[in-house]
Amino acid sequence: MTASSALLGIALHPLTPFAPLLGGIFGIAVGAALGYGKPAWRLIAAALASLPLLLMTASWPAFALSAGVLALGALLPAARGIRGAMTVMLGATITLLAMWTALRFDHARATAQWPTMLTDGASAAAMGIVGVIAMLPRHIGIAFDPVQGAIRALPPRLDSEVRALCDRTLAIWSDVKTKLGESDPHLTLVRDGVLKTLEVAAKSTDAQPQGATDEQLGRRMEDLDARIAAATDDEVKQQYQSARAALSDQAKYRERIRQNHERLVARMHNHVAALEKFQLAAGGLASARAASAGATAIQQLSDLSRDVAASGEALVEVGEA
């Protein structure tokens, strides 16, 4: 890309004052064609990118239009959708920077004494060097793993048992993702099951008793019982009895919360066990595929998929209860 830009910049020197830019544009197109094929597509894009320089007043809007057309031709078809649009936008920005570099190099004081042909060639080469960076966005992939995001969102005050279940779930996810591959339809099911586990784990902190401990409540109730027995004034005795009843209600609430938490943890254990069965079946599927006998393993995996889905729904119901 750099060499072709330099040679074209020198070759175009006698024809146009835009030789550095045109040489860089066609040099980038040639480099993209050599690296990624589709030479006709690249050269047509370079020719279209040259038109703003030749037909419009030399200005940054014209340069930006030229850079956008060149990036579109040099980078596509690299990706589709939002990623493709972002790739082209980033490539166009870098191409515009490359054009600015060529202009700065062409008008630099250090090159003022050089032969103009050599200056044009060096400026076009500088544009080609920066243009190489414009090719990088097509090799950059943006990936977001929602499981990792859910792990980071877990509250820090999880109890040790729930935290251990989360760690086990994460290990299952990493293993199954490796065995099945991103394109396997069963992977989405496992991801949903893991996310449900982490979602319920995050809610488990709400299903833990807060405030005074059972021991503290017990001592306060014993103290109130003693005060009630020793009270001689009816008003004082009534107030102590009301306080004692409130503490008794607190103890009942705490017991109910504790039971809900135990049910949630038990359901999490059951769900993680279902994921572990699926993990083993996924390993069997990988072996069966290698032996060209995967029909039975696929059926087994599908059966376990239903178990994981049912377990996940039950887990969410417990978490919302």
Question: What can you tell me about this protein's structure?
Answer:
There is one protein chain. With 321 residues, the chain is mainly alpha-helical. It folds into two domains: 2-139, no CATH class; 146-215 and 256-320, A middle domain of Talin 1, CATH 1.20.1420. The chain has helices at 2-12, 19-36, 39-55, 60-75, 81-106, 116-134, 146-152, 160-180, 186-203, 214-230, 234-290, 295-320. The longest helix has 57 residues, at 234-290.
Note the main attributes of this structure.
321 residues; mainly alpha; A middle domain of Talin 1; 2 domains; elongated
Helix/strand/pairing class, anyone?
mainly alpha
Rounded mean pLDDT score? 74
The H/E string reads HHHHHHHHHHHH
Report the biggest beta sheet as strand number plus sense, adding barrel if it closes: none
Could you tell me how far the N terminus lies from the C terminus, measured between alpha carbons in angstroms? 63 Å
The shape is elongated
Rg:
35 Å
Helix amount: over 70%
State which percent range the strand residues make up.
under 5%
Quaternary state, please?
single chain
Low-confidence parts lasting 5 or more residues at pLDDT below 50? 286-298
Provide a count of the helices: 12
Task: Quickly count the domains.
Answer: 2
By DSSP, the count of extended strands is: 0
